[in-house]
Amino acid sequence: MAKPGLSAAAAALPLLLLGSFLSASSVKADAALSAPLNVTIRELEVNSAVVTWEILEGDPVIGFAITQQKKDVRMLRFIQEVNTTTRSCALWDLDEDTEYIVHVQSISMEGSSPPSQPVLFKTPKESEKMASKSPDEVTMEEVGQAAQLRAGELIIIVVVLVMWAGVIALFCRQYDIIKDNEPNNNKDKAKNSSECSTPEHPQGGLLRSNV
Length: 211
Hints:
Elements: H1 4-30, E1 37-42, E2 49-54, E3 63-70, E4 76-82, E5 88-91, E6 99-108, E7 111-112, E8 119-122, H2 126-132, H3 140-196
Antiparallel strand pairs: 1-2, 2-5, 3-4, 3-6, 6-7, 6-8
């Protein structure tokens, strides 16, 4: 005959196993999303930078969250994006010659991953950036300025050509007017010349003086 204590323990054993399984499943679900890997700072400029990262294949990531902080300063900047598969983010409005610390987290429907390993970087000085740029290097800003200058030069050339065309057209019009008036002037001159000439003798002969 089985003892009552043993029967109760045997009955409770499946419940304990089920509870342990559910707890393990819950922990596994919470820890399913891994922290981003290979967090890297690229395109480092005086006032901006781009942070990139990777995720484990199969992680149900729907977005990311970035924590940006100046070194030795408690103030934080928090950037979060959802419904995106991008693996990079631009950091803007940075101070030159300043150290920053960045953490990245992945976001899923269940929550956020643990933060990535902190990444420390320092923005360069403006003078150092200008000195490091080679003479042949052309930035997008310089390209835009050159395009604006070319557009301004083209506008000036077009305006000058239009003005010259107007001057030439006016000259041609005045020339046509002067040319049209020349026959009338010739007729007037001939008429005036005929009126001033000596009239002929009515009988057609020359008058002779009587001796």
